[in-house]
Write the structure tokens for this entry.
Amino acid sequence: MTKIAASIMVHAPDQALDDTTRAAQHGADLVELRVDGFTHDHNALARVVEESDLPCIVTCRPDWEGGQYQGDEHARISLFEHLAQCARPPAYIDIELAAYQRSSDTRRRIDRLVDHPGQVKPTSTGLILSSHDFKSRPIDLYQRVEAMAAAPACRIMKLAWYAKSLRDNLEAFELLASHHKPTIALCMGPFGLPSRVLAKKFGALLTFASIEPSAATAEGQPTIDQLKNLYRWDTITPTTRVFGVIGYPVAHSASPAIHNAAFDAVHHDAVYLPLSIPPEYEHFAATVGAWLDATDLHFRGASVTIPHKENLLRFAHERHANIEPLAEHIGAANTLVRHDNGSLHTTNTDCSAAIDSVCHALGILHADLAAQRVAVIGAGGVARAVVAGFAQHGATVVVYNRTLEKAQALADRFNGHTGKVVATPLDKLCDSWGQIYINCTPLGMHPHTDATPVPDPQKTWGPGTVVFDTIYNPTHTRLLRDARAAGCLTISGLDMFIRQAALQFKLWTNQDVPLDVFRRILTDRLTNSGT
Ligand code: NAP
């Protein structure tokens, strides 16, 4: 069973012991004591190892392998020799493969301390041979693996490198799957999160996590709480399905929180991750293609957001996916579904979510939209989905945009598809005659919460007007506050966000999502982020 090792930087013995206690309370299985910056007091470190609430890995990482230790090698190995004498010695000591290979003296002295087939004196301490590359995947990765595998004293192989893309994670998974010695294979940096969360799916010996975000000992390391409470660590098995939100940037997306909570709520064996892919189509196609082709990964779908919605549609064409006609019509998709038989399906849930939000708030049917006059503010990606939806249902739509040409292009695309769509400059908004106003610009979004696309609401709206802001962060934008003050009925972007996510969830799991779970998680998240 893959363990969680809390990585703890030792600055002082009492701090380290407090941290081991906190690590145990958070649910870690063992601790890695990073003693690189505290090597002068061997007895104090021995006390930490002996009194730790959890079994210890002791690591004294030299600066030439990304650590803080700058002393000489003889003194470093002497520290390990001292700790090996403890009444309760370390469960593991970690030595870099390079150090172990470079010096026969280091090798001889380390081999004397650890348990291995040739060991004559009883000891329980295991040797982790490790390799780290802070730039990229080392070109001699497999030679390093073979060297570790061939060393009789090496009980655990640890390979860590800086991931340049999400594809690096796949190689880490292959390493875990293909080696007989217990292995730790981790990718560092923002692209490496999957290797840390899915370590359990692929049978790694352990994954590293921190007690709190500021205590991370490597870039991209999650906290124990994130692993357990956000990424469903305790439920992950080799057959767990993998989903994610693809975007750039994507680290602050709320989607992992809501989808993982929903998987919990309906007991669906799946985990949902943030998946960062740089904007160019080549990156998107290569990464998503490789993830879909990795059969043991069970990658079953994704939410796709800025800047990849058009990329998803192009990819779906190239992969001969089933493409929902509406997504084709909009020219962008936000949902990828991979069925168990391997077939792909692509759709756009933004459009239905926007329409459903309005119909639900007004208590009307889709068919009733034909009688509505709708003012859409903005002509970007969300506006395109909103205009497509209303035009499809026969509404009359006026697109107001700062750049008239973009509004015109949008109108040209959708005018005549049942409804009527025309373009108008944004500064003509106060002369409009809409019944429903929909903001599809980022004006008013966190952190610029004082901004609004409707500077003169009293002139523009009256009681009975419906105002829908697609922004959901904050939930109560200035636009919606002004609209309420003018007696309008308001709809929050939170409603649309929840609905588009719920439609995705249904496509992936064939289960209705508990909407209250989505709403609670999102509201908590937005409140806690101070927005
Ligand atoms: P986008 O493609 O970048 O389009 C932004 C639009 O806003 C463009 O038409 C742009 O006008 C206009 N705009 C931007 N800054 C402006 C300014 N200072 N003054 C006037 N107009 C301005 O963005 P998008 O993907 O459509 O997203 C728009 C918003 O929708 C996001 O900010 C987000 O809050 C919201 N959203 C909500 C959901 C949901 O589920 N609730 C989902 C996705 C997005 P120009 O054409 O002149 O540049």
Notes: The pocket of NAP is lined by residues 306, 350, 378-383, 401-403, 406, 426, 440-443, 445, 470-472, 493, 496-497, 500 (CB under 6 Å).
